[in-house]
Specification:
The complex is a heterodimer of chains A (380) and B (467). By secondary structure, chain A is mainly alpha-helical. Chain A contains 17 helices and no strands. A 6-stranded mixed β-sheet of chain B has the order 19-18-15-20-21-22, sandwiched between helices. In chain B, strands 1-3-7-5 form a 4-stranded antiparallel β-sheet, with no helix packed on it. A 4-stranded antiparallel β-sheet of chain B has the order 6-4-9-10, with no helix packed on it. In chain B, strand 18 and strand 19 form a beta hairpin. Chain B has 467 residues and is an alpha+beta fold. In chain B, helix 1 crosses helix 2 and helix 8 runs parallel beside helix 9. Chain B is 39% helix and 29% strand. The chains are: A mainly alpha (380), B alpha+beta (467).
């Protein structure tokens, strides 16, 4: 049987050790991601404000639509036709906000205004993503759930894509003519790190799956076990007397209380009302069962369900090796895909891709996409 | 089945791969039809596609993720087979008294030669039970041919028959991307007898104050016992060994000696399980009271080696146990008491008709009823009983002592009216029953043991001479 204090300390140490490992993996992955992005170009508070400005203007637009709708209904109902310039419906709203050039250009043409502020808006979104990723790292460290890691990964990749599309990348563009050129690109190195990140966080989260519930279980059960294990028969009898005295006192103080506590001391309900009686009864039963099964405490706190540290480490290690080897092996096959595509669309010199093959890839991708969306919608 | 996490993982891979391939598709479409369409929008797509390394990167990353996903799926399909998992539920006992504890141990065994890495087992427990120690679920790592165990202790706070199970088994892969849920229909019944606390209390009282049980315990009648009963004239058919030669000489005619034979009493506990008996506080309805009183009565009867039986009724007979003596009979009574539940309306007449068909000899009937049924049925029942040498006595739980006062609201006048009306109605019924010379004892849950004990002893003392 494992000593309770020793066990709790051991589990705490392991959980923190694995969290520390996670921090290192997170650090490497995020460094690799954000070294590809020139964050100095967009990471500023003024850009975040654009998001809020956009939200405000979207609200104004919505209200404008509502006013227009009401006016249309009103003219139809009253049967009176009159001409109202569209922008004049905004007049009542302008009173609530400061009139500036931004607002004026928005009123003039919302779509043109939106396209003019697009780079600033994207910069704002990227800044927000940075902020959310930071918060999610804290969430992962606290709960140890892999879902946080996956969302971090998704957001980081989205940030990378957006920054590449809108020209926030920090690396110089290179021309790719063959496979060896591609392997040398910073994006390829990043993709390898990303895969490693996913695999390692998955394995670390597997570890938390066992340890965190056991830790919670120990906290809940050991407190109660300690409470009644320490009790002596003398303490029990003194405790019960004290509780009976308190119940009697309440009855003396209030006749109404008598109504509710009637039967507490002598009646058939007596045995269920006192905490000390409950503990004494539980202690007797627990001691009896423990004599029959010396491993009862370990079974109650769930120690018997988790693997030993060595078993766990070996499982993680073997799993990582197998998956790593399979991913590397299969990646060689996968790399032919960009070669085909590169050959066709990038003016490549390696291989030509026939139209039929391209369409097969498109259709299968579309199916996969539909399947993934339906699965996601089913879960949310 | 793909988990939410698996869906996210798959979606990510497909998105990265699909995004680039879709961009390429649009671009391809543009190349084919640019002369006819000539839209500027496709220039943006062209820009994305031509971004050196970008589309390659997306495809590779997407493919990597999908690859990892597929590997997990294959590995999961190979290892996660529900048939390889054997689950056994072990109870330290399946028959307990109300308020007692039960330790449930779940033993999970892996029959296969592969490790089942991420197994979640949850054993369903009826809500009415209190989880005292441990949890009814666990995450388990099962090595090949390995066995893992976890336990929990539950408290059974109410009388009844309950079912533990099913056990829900969920197998996930290491990454938690896929899972198989399965429900194992391994039900196990727990019978919770009414509380034994009253019997324990009675035993403590006995030990503290000596025998508190007094009065005659056995029915005496003439027969072949050892105690002298009397002398009478010889009649043809008397055995020659009973002739008292000394008295015969003195009287001048043949006289025989008679001896006293001791016979145990026969007791039937009749419980009214009509709907009105189900009212009261959650922890002590009138029916719960009746069950507890019946336990005590059966215990007493068993102790004095009386034959005792049970009849549970409302407008029909729910269960019947013929009067017998012994520990086995006591356990049979407990089992029946665990199962009783309130339904229908009270009809003592039907119950008595049923009893007299099965019991031809004299017996005592201790009826536990709240007297909230049709008075005619009670009268009819008593008439039938008396006509067939069944001597009844009634223990009647008084509703006003059992009801939860909160249900009647805050209005004191209203409460008073309800209580007075109830008492008046009750008195009328009692009056009609008392005409037959039947005793009715009003029962209050707070003076529980005394009432039951007294009823038993009084009933025996009163009826024993005429039986």
């Amino acid at each position: 049987m494992v000593e309770k204090k020793e066990l709790r300390e051991k589990i705490d140490f392991l959980i923190w050790a694995f969290r520390f490992l996670s921090i290192i993996v997170f650090g490497i992955y995020l460094y690799s991601t954000f070294s590809l992005i020139d964050y100095k170009k967009f990471l500023s508070f003024s850009h975040v404000i654009y998001i809020f400005v956009l939200a405000k203007y979207a609200l104004i637009l919505l209200l404008q639509m509502l006013i227009l709708l009401l006016i249309t209904i009103a003219t139809k109902v009253l049967g009176v036709g009159f001409y109202l310039p569209k922008n004049s419906t905004l007049l009542p709203l302008i009173g609530f906000t400061t009139l500036n050039n931004n607002l004026l250009s928005f009123i003039k043409d919302p779509l043109e205004w939106a396209s003019s502020i697009l780079p600033d808006m994207i910069a704002g979104i990227l800044s927000l993503i940075f902020l959310v990723i930071g918060l999610m790292i804290l969430g992962y460290l606290n709960k140890g759930k892999i879902d946080f890691a996956l969302w971090i990964f998704l957001l980081a990749e989205l940030a990378l894509i957006l920054s590449l599309i809108f020209g926030f990348q920090s690396f110089k563009t290179v021309t790719i003519d063959n496979l060896s050129d591609f392997v040398k690109t910073p994006l390829f190195i990043h993709s390898v790190i990303a895969i490693l990140f996913l695999e390692i966080t998955t394995q670390l989260s597997y570890f938390s799956t066992f340890l965190i519930p056991v830790k919670e279980r120990i906290k809940r059960n050991i407190t109660l076990i300690n409470k009644f294990e320490k009790l002596t028969p003398q303490e029990i009898s003194v405790g019960i007397e004290e509780e009976i005295r308190r119940a009697r006192l309440v009855e003396k103080l209030s006749p109404v209380a008598t109504l509710f506590t009637s039967g507490v001391v002598t009646g058939p309900l007596a045995e269920r009302k006192f905490n000390m009686q409950f503990l004494a009864k539980l202690k007797a039963y627990y001691d009896f069962m423990k004599n029959k099964d010396p491993e009862l405490q370990d079974k109650l706190v769930g120690i018997k369900t988790i693997p030993t540290i060595t078993q766990l480490l070996v499982t993680i290690f073997i799993s990582l090796i197998i998956r790593g080897l399979l991913v590397i092996g299969l990646s060689f096959i996968v790399l032919f895909l960009p070669i085909y595509l590169g050959g066709t669309f990038m003016g490549g010199k390696i291989l030509e891709l026939s139209y039929i093959e391209v369409y097969v890839i498109y259709i299968s991708t579309a199916f996969l996409l539909l399947y993934a969306i339906s699965e996601l919608l089913g879960r949310i | 089945m793909i988990t939410r996490r698996g869906g996210l993982y798959l979606g990510l891979g497909v998105f990265l791969l699909g995004f680039t391939l879709a961009a390429l598709a649009i671009y391809h479409f543009y190349i084919l039809f640019r002369e006819r369409i000539g839209l500027e929008f496709f220039e943006i797509i062209k820009g994305v596609v031509y971004l050196p390394g970008f589309s390659f990167y997306m495809v590779v990353l997407g493919a990597f993720i999908l690859m990892s996903f597929s590997i997990s799926l294959i590995s999961f399909k190979l290892s996660a087979k529900i048939d390889n998992i054997e689950i056994e539920r072990i109870l330290d006992r399946d028959r307990v008294f109300m308020g007692d504890y039960v330790t449930v141990t779940i033993r999970v065994k892996n029959r296969s030669n592969r490790t089942i890495g991420n197994l979640f087992v949850s054993d369903l427990v009826p809500d009415i039970f209190n989880m005292i120690l441990g949890d009814n679920y666990a995450h388990i790592h099962l090595p090949p041919k390995g066995v893992r165990e976890f336990s929990y202790i539950i408290e059974c706070p109410y009388r009844g028959v309950y079912v533990l199970g099913p056990t829900i088994v969920s197998v996930k892969d290491t990454a938690g991307l896929f899972k198989i849920d399965h429900s194992l229909e391994n039900f196990k019944e727990i019978i919770v007898y009414p509380s034994y606390e009253d019997v324990k209390k009675l035993e403590i009282l006995q030990r503290a104050y000596g025998s508190i049980i007094y009065g005659p315990h056995r029915v005496k009648q003439k027969g072949s016992g050892y105690d002298f009963w009397g002398i009478r004239r010889y009649v043809i058919g008397d055995h020659i060994k009973f002739i008292d030669w000394r008295s015969s000489a003195r009287m001048g005619r043949l006289m025989v000696k008679e001896y006293e034979a001791e016979k145990n009493a026969k007791l039937y506990i009749l419980i009214d399980a009509s709907k009105s008996m189900g009212f009261g506080r959650e922890t002590m309805t009138k029916l719960d009271f009746a069950a507890r009183a019946a336990v005590l009565l059966a215990y007493l009867a068993n102790r004095f080696q009386d034959d005792f039986g049970l009849l549970v009724f409302s407008d029909n007979v729910h269960s019947f146990l013929e009067a017998k003596k012994g520990k086995k009979q006591f356990l049979r009574v407990l089992e029946e008491l665990a199962k009783i539940s309130p339904k229908g309306v009270s009809d003592l007449g039907t119950a008595m008709r049923y009893l007299i068909q099965r019991e031809r000899r004299a017996a005592i009937a201790l009826i536990i009823t709240d007297l909230e049924g049709n008075p005619t049925y009670y009268e009819e029942g008593i008439k039938i009983a008396l006509a067939h040498k069944i001597y009844p006595m009634i223990i009647s739980p008084v509703s006003i002592y059992f009801e939860d006062w909160k249900d009647l609201g805050e209005d004191e006048i209203y409460k008073d009216v309800v209580i007075s009306e109830h008492i008046l109605e009750r008195e009328k019924i009692k009056e009609r029953i008392r005409k037959f010379g039947i005793d009715i004892v009003d029962a209050d849950p707070n003076v529980f043991i005394g009432i039951t004990l007294e009823t038993y002893l009084v009933s025996k003392a009163k009826n024993i001479r005429i039986m």
